[in-house]
Amino acid sequence: MNNLYLAPVGPEWIDQFNKTVDNRVPVPEDAPDDLQREDKIRLWGTGDGPQKRSFFEDMSSGDVVLFYNNGEFIASGRIGTPFESDAVGEAAWGEPESSFLFTITDYKRITLDRRRIGRLLGYSEGWYPRGFVEVSNDARNTLLQEYNSIEEAFQDFQTEEDGGEKKPSKPDDDTDTPREHTEIQYYLVQLGLRHGYDVYVAKNDKNREYDGERLGENCVESLQLPGFSSAATDIIKYVDVIWLEDDHIAKLFEVESTTSIYSGILRMADFAVKVPNIAIDIRIVAPGNDEDKVRKEMTRPTFDKVLGNAEHCDLGFLSFDDVQETYETVQDAGPLQNVF
After folding, report:
1. 4-166 — its CATH code?
2. What are the residue ranges spanned by the domains of the chain?
3. Residues 182, 120: contact at Cβ < 8 Å?
4. CA–CA separation, 8 vs 278, rounded Å?
5. What is the rounded distance in angstroms from the CA atom of residue 28 to the CA atom of residue 9?
6. pLDDT per position as a tens digit, 211-241
7. CATH code of the domain occupying 178-333
8. What's CA 218's distance to the chain center, in Å?
9. Strands (E), the chain
10. Residue 257: pLDDT band by 50, 70, 90 thresholds?
11. Burial class (CB in 10 A: 0-12, 13-18, 19+), 46
């Protein structure tokens, strides 16, 4: 299960936050080798100390972090790569003691009142985060009384703003616009339906519209997968599009921008751990000119080790153009013998 971290950003640090998290920074030369292939990263960290070291040593890629400033939570994301380096702390902020560092993926600006998060975690009315902290097991269990998992809470936080109004989430990379993402989802939905599959749309996307049509129209409303644990089902509730044959998964599609590709593969890796013997096709769908970057992410050692053991899973890449061209072909000529 993912950990949840709370990171307050004080008034004296908000400019640095905007510089190294909001806007991203070039990779410092003392950062780990696996980051050196990136052009820019979102970077944050915390100072030394026995308790913070304990929090840091518990940290793993994919854990959720919420950033707090001036009475509200202002941003959310996932831990990318945690690493320790006083040299990078010095280079980034002139603070070598800020040596417990981490990159951030799936980053999004949000607006969540501290009292809502406090209630979800079972804290008192006047609570606010006073320092970088890993949420305790007791607080996490309180959160799980409302959500099935930290992952579900994270997805909800990223689509909830201004007191609970649901809005389409803004991707982490401006090259993958909300409309473009929804358009590709729509094509995948229609292709699945035309080829006789039952189709499931991500829980937080099914009510989005493309050209006046709801993405979840004519699709199954929930996943009913015999033999799957609730933990396994919870992981894939937010997969963008799923094609099903009766009660069995045929294909999973994650539509991603290059900066959020990590989350899609992470979700697939988590799922493969829960059901290692399942035979499914997994497709990461992204802009064609980003194929090399996506494939590098797909071959990270973290994912390769897990997905390599899932012998019956086939992880592959699809470009936006592939999806659109296939959709247009099917519109003109009818269903294909094989699709994706």
Report:
1. 3.10.590.10
2. 4-166, 178-333
3. no
4. 41
5. 22
6. 889 999 999 998 888 888 877 787 788 889 9
7. 3.40.50
8. 26
9. 4-8, 25-26, 40-41, 43-46, 64-69, 72-84, 100-113, 133-134, 160-161, 165-166, 198-201, 209-210, 213-214, 241-245, 248-255, 281-286, 314-319
10. low
11. buried
pLDDT digits (tens, 9 = 90+) for 170-227: 434 444 455 788 899 999 999 999 999 999 998 878 888 888 899 999 999 988 888 8
Find the DSSP H helices in 127-229. 137-143, 150-159, 178-194
Instruction: Look up the pTM and report it.
Output: 0.57
Q: Which residues pair with 46 in a beta bridge?
A: 100
State both tokens at 67.
């950033």
Tokens for 28, please give them. 């410092």
User: 3-state DSSP call for residue 329?
Assistant: helix
Distances in Å between the Cα of 228 and the Cα atoms of 96, 103, 221, 328 are 47, 33, 17, 35
